[in-house]
Design brief:
alpha+beta, two-stranded antiparallel ribbon, single chain, 36 helices, five-stranded antiparallel β-sheet, 29 strands
Length: 1056
């Protein structure tokens, strides 16, 4: 008997010792005090390697050097617990309370079917309810019995988020150990659920294995109890005002329902909830002040009155740390007139949020209530400005975008690469996000697991309807712009009054988002994985990944983010409108976070508002609506025959601008750095191959759509003596020369390693040469030679082969330099480029080609195909008189000739191969792809051949391509690369050269015919071209083409 007692006592002591050790692991790194490491001690290599792999080498080394707690943990050092954190006794009391509670099956019966392992949660729900009852005390009369069920429903949902991964892992372990009984996986799950997961023995095992799980559960229970008790207490305190302001004086007795899960959880488990009073009236309860909304509504009422439209106002009761408001109803319009007014009002609100710099107005924060757009969440009402590290043009561009009308979230724009339209004006449900989230699959089986899948947006209430049918914003762009313009003009006329009415802003705080909420959510979800539930140090270390891309100046911010995430909350920061600091958990941190306060930014914004800025913002609005993914058909660029009447119909739908307007637009959109030493432009770039989303990005330095092209354009504008052109031209010239000098110093200063003639470093050589020929200024020739050295050194790095961006373009740039200088070293380097190119040639059934994309066979055409590569090869054949180049040219021509299709008199576009129905049965007809580029290539190549075989070949191709282009030059776009400007320019060059070469022309055109087809001095813009100043793909080149005609530029055909 004594031996048995001794054994029991030893076992009990061992269990207590283990429990004590586990309780100690419940503390996070920031709650521990580690002993300093002693010399000669061996580090824990296994642990080091684990975290080095998880955090990455750079971040691990930084943490290991600078964070003493991390250093101590990784090396397995002993530690003490800081005095200001919860005691072990606190956690043990919670543990004992839960273990002692009996399972209550009545609770389980009331739970939602979406809850897995519901029996596990019974004691926690019972414990939580007891705490809640105790906490509200005498206020229990203010709630119905059903509210306790609401509380438990809320609690079990947040507990499932914490526990589900661990419970699944334990079930799988039991199955591996053959401890589950059942005929199939469903019965095995049921056995685990009914016989194991609810027992006190299982919970004891879980506590010993995953002490952090218990801490997270305990904290979630206390947060839920605290928040629900706070709601009840505030209801009791505010009941009189609620009756008077929100219930039209009718008395209310109690809360009968609380619906949660409507927003992210911040600040100790708080989120927006719907409160039902007396089973009859629903109100929103927000755990924050709504002074921002009240202030905004006052400003909206003022500006709406100036414009002549009323606005929607809804009752709000706002207090320091919470608020109550009525719920805005999503309603349909009855008439088209109401829809027009809806969009006008939307335009008015766009002006107001533009002035204030309001953010985060995505589709969940806008409600279409009949003819009124209502913004329902204005936490992020206004922002301060961060200090930039440099006075560079990139900072100026980023700031310009952040200050634009696009930044609010109301308009479709790919700010966060979510691959969806989340805008307030057109975002909708059913869209698939571009990221994956964890979901439970194979539910209620022993094979249940967490899988990552693409989520879809939920149905929302932001879309305006007429007679229950969704309206398309593109049909109401003008109404939107009318409202925007009217409100903007009224602000210009009443700036001082606006500033006076906005003084209330000085007393407000705005939410400040330091990181995308989705990133926080994913990290928080990962932190509930069982692998980091064994030790508080491991869970906190996971959050050290927040340091990626940050520096020591953000120490307080990152520390605060980690603390919020450890507490199971999405980090929440705010800023005082008149302060440069951030506010976290009621305390001021990072007192130099902003270089300018939100109030200073607001004053500056109002002062800078003028008509030219209004026009820029209007252009952003128009483009964002016309380019959003639901309107893809509006920006496709079709090919038309000469007699196709649809061409005129389509062009009448496009934006029309005069040459003068284009010049003004380019100047208006120029973005300068603070010192006026750099200039750049934002250009529209479709961000995937299907054109489903788009972004505004700054220009690079290349010719195709960058600053080299703008330098060519502004040389012509300067020559034409246009106002302001000289300043821009001089700045661009200096920028390009500086780029060359910096590139010589280090390749790190280059935009890319591409060497091509249009999109690569070779394009800068090409642009310098064009300017040298045009201006006769020797400095351009010197810089062409300088920059060619950069291209030469990049040749072996460049894995591209085409004329546009690869080695074929580089070779041609060297041969052009050779033609201008007679220097044999450029001829030699051109040969080197071709030799590199030839190593990657792919042998075809006929001839050779180069694969530009892995999934697409070698292409025909000028930009990416054999036509572009043929030019420098035939030039080398002439310059070197080596037969090998003619033999290579033979193979290049043979492959492209094999792609010629007499049925359509065009060269096949291999991008179309494999499609059941070609998207373009006419074939491509443009400078970049198809007949126009082939024609231009053959015209250039004709200069380099002398034997009859080649002349006959090229003449045949010239006649074929000329006929095709003559019949199908019409496009929707007017650009050089794939539009009318390029096609007509090639036709003109071809006619001149065909006469020179003695090639007969069938159906020669004259300038008068072209003028009759095109509206003289008018450019038509596709949506993606409205803010695209690029030389080849935008209206930089369109304008250049017009100046070409006006300035009568001669002998300059190689420009295209």
């Amino acid at each position: 008997m004594r031996m048995h007692s001794a054994h029991f006592i030893c076992a009990f002591i061992e269990w207590w010792r283990k429990r004590d050790m586990n309780v100690k692991k419940i503390y996070y790194l920031s709650e521990r005090i580690y002993e300093p490491i002693k010399c000669g001690e061996e580090p824990a290599e296994v642990r080091k390697e684990y975290w080095r792999n998880l955090l990455g080498e750079t971040m691990f080394n930084q943490m290991y050097r600078e964070n003493i707690q991390f250093y101590g943990y990784v090396n397995g050092k002993e530690y003490a617990v800081r005095n200001n954190v919860k005691s072990k006794k606190h956690f043990i009391e919670f543990y004992n309370n839960i273990i002692c509670l009996e399972q209550n099956l009545q609770i389980e019966k009331k739970l939602d079917k979406s809850i897995e392992f519901s029996r596990f949660y019974g004691p926690f729900l019972q414990y939580g309810k007891e705490l809640f009852v105790k906490k509200i005390g005498k206020n229990s009369d203010a709630i119905s019995e059903y509210v306790y069920e609401c509380f438990q429903t809320y609690l079990i949902n947040i507990l499932q988020e914490v526990c589900i991964r661990t419970l699944i892992a334990e079930m799988h372990l039991y199955k591996q150990q053959k401890k589950l009984h059942g005929q199939d996986e469903r019965e095995e799950y049921e056995f685990f659920h009914s016989e194991i997961v609810g027992t006190s023995g299982f919970k004891k095992e879980l506590f010993e294995k995953y002490p952090i799980l218990w801490r997270c559960i305990e904290e979630k229970i206390y947060q839920a109890v605290g928040y629900y008790s706070e709601i009840v207490e505030n209801f009791v305190d505010n009941k009189s005002e609620i009756q008077n302001e929100l219930c039209k004086g009718n008395s209310v007795k109690r809360i009968t329902n609380i619906k949660s899960g409507l927003s992210d959880v911040h600040n100790q488990g708080k989120s927006v909830v719907v409160i039902t009073l007396d089973d009859s009236l629903d109100l929103l309860y927000k755990p924050r002040s709504m002074e921002n909304e009240l202030g905004f509504l006052n400003l909206l009422e003022w500006i709406s009155d100036k414009v002549g439209l009323d606005c929607y106002k809804y009752p709000i009761l706002s207090y320091d740390n919470h608020s109550w408001c009525s719920i805005v109803k999503h309603d349909s319009c009855d008439t088209e007139e109401q829809v027009k007014r809806y969009y006008q009002r939307f335009g008015i609100q766009l002006v107001l949020v533009y002035c204030l710099g309001t953010r985060d107005l995505h589709f969940e924060n806008v409600i279409a209530s009949g003819e009124y757009p209502v913004l329902v969440d204005l936490e992020a009402l206004t922002y301060g400005k961060r200090e930039h590290n440099t006075d560079g043009i990139k900072d100026a561009i980023n700031q310009h975008l952040a200050d634009s009308v696009l930044c609010s979230g109301l308009l479709p724009y790919a700010w966060q690469n979510l691959n969806i339209d989340s805008s307030g004006i057109s975002g909708k449900g059913g869209q698939k996000y571009g990221f994956k989230v964890p979901v439970i699959v194979n539910r209620r089986t022993a094979n249940m697991r967490i899988e990552y899948r693409y989520p879809e947006t939920k149905a929302v209430q932001n879309l305006v309807k007429v007679k229950e049918k969704d309206c398309n914003p593109i049909q109401h762009v003008q109404d939107l712009l009318d409202g925007f313009k009217k409100a903007y003009v009224k602000i210009l006329e009443n700036k001082e009054e606006l500033l006076q009415r906005s003084l209330f802003l000085q007393n407000l705080n705005s939410r400040y988002v330091t990181m995308n909420t989705q990133q926080y959510s994913m990290l928080l979800s990962a932190s509930y994985h069982p692998s980091v539930m064994r030790d508080g140090a491991e869970r906190e270390t996971l959050f050290y990944s927040l340091w990626k891309g940050r520096n020591e100046t953000e120490q307080e911010v990152v520390d605060s983010e980690i603390q919020d995430l450890l507490n199971g909350n999405i980090p929440y920061f705010s800023c005082s409108v008149c302060g440069k600091y951030l506010i976290h958990d009621g305390k001021e941190i990072d007192n130099k976070h902003f270089s300018k306060t939100a109030w200073e930014v607001f004053i500056e914004k109002i002062k800078k508002m003028r008509v030219s800025d209004m026009n820029v913002q209007k252009e952003y609005i128009r483009m964002s609506i016309e380019l959003f993914s639901g309107n893809r058909c509006n920006y496709e660029n079709h090919v038309y025959s000469m007699d196709d009447k649809k061409w005129k119909e389509r062009r009448n739908q496009l934006e029309k601008v005069t040459i003068k307007q284009l010049e003004n637009r380019i100047l208006r959109h120029a973005i300068w750095n603070q010192e006026k030493t750099q200039v750049n432009w934002l250009t529209t770039q479709l961000s995937d191959k299907n054109g489903e989303s788009w972004r505004l990005l700054p220009m690079n330095h290349y010719l195709y759509s960058g600053l080299a092209g703008m330098l060519l354009l502004f040389y012509e504008l300067k020559t034409a003596k246009r106002p302001q052109a000289m300043k821009v031209y001089d700045t661009l010239k200096n920028e390009m020369f500086t780029y060359t000098e910096n590139g010589i110093c280090s390749f790190k200063n280059l935009d890319s390693s591409k060497t091509g003639l249009y999109e690569g470093e070779g394009s800068i050589v090409y642009a310098y040469l064009c300017l040298y020929k045009r201006s006769s200024e020797q400095i351009y020739l010197r810089y062409a030679e300088k920059h060619s050295e950069i291209v030469r050194k990049l040749l072996k790095q460049d894995q591209r082969y085409d004329l546009l961006s690869g080695n074929a373009g580089a070779a041609w740039s060297f041969l052009l330099l050779y033609g201008s200088t007679g220097n044999a070293r450029f001829l030699q380097t051109g040969e080197e480029a071709i030799q590199i190119l030839l190593k990657s040639a792919e042998v075809q059934e006929q001839g050779i080609g180069w694969r530009i994309q892995e999934e697409i066979p070698p292409m025909s055409g000028l930009a990416h195909g054999n036509s572009g590569i043929l030019i420098p090869i035939l030039a080398l054949s002439k310059y070197t008189e080596r037969t090998m180049y003619e033999e290579i040219a033979d193979k290049i021509w043979n492959y492209e000739n094999s792609l010629y299709d007499p049925a359509i008199n065009n060269w096949k576009d291999t991008r179309e191969q494999g499609k059941v129905v070609s998207s373009n049965p006419i074939g491509s007809v443009a400078w970049c792809h198809g007949a126009a580029g082939v024609l231009y290539s053959r015209i250039l190549c004709y200069e380099f051949v002398e034997d009859k075989k080649w002349k006959n070949r090229l003449e045949l191709d010239i006649k074929r391509a000329y006929k095709k282009l003559q019949q199908y030059w019409k496009r929707d776009s007017d650009c050089l690369c794939h539009g009318n400007s390029g096609n007509l320019w090639i036709l003109r060059i071809a006619q001149e050269k065909m006469k020179e070469y003695g090639i007969s022309i069938e159906g020669e055109w004259d300038a008068e015919f072209w003028k009759s087809e095109l509206e003289e001095g008018i450019i038509h813009l596709l949506p993606q071209e409205q803010i695209n100043f690029g030389f080849m793909n935008g209206y930089g080149g369109m304008l250049y083409k017009q100046l070409y005609n006006t300035n009568a530029i001669k002998n300059h055909m190689e420009l295209i």
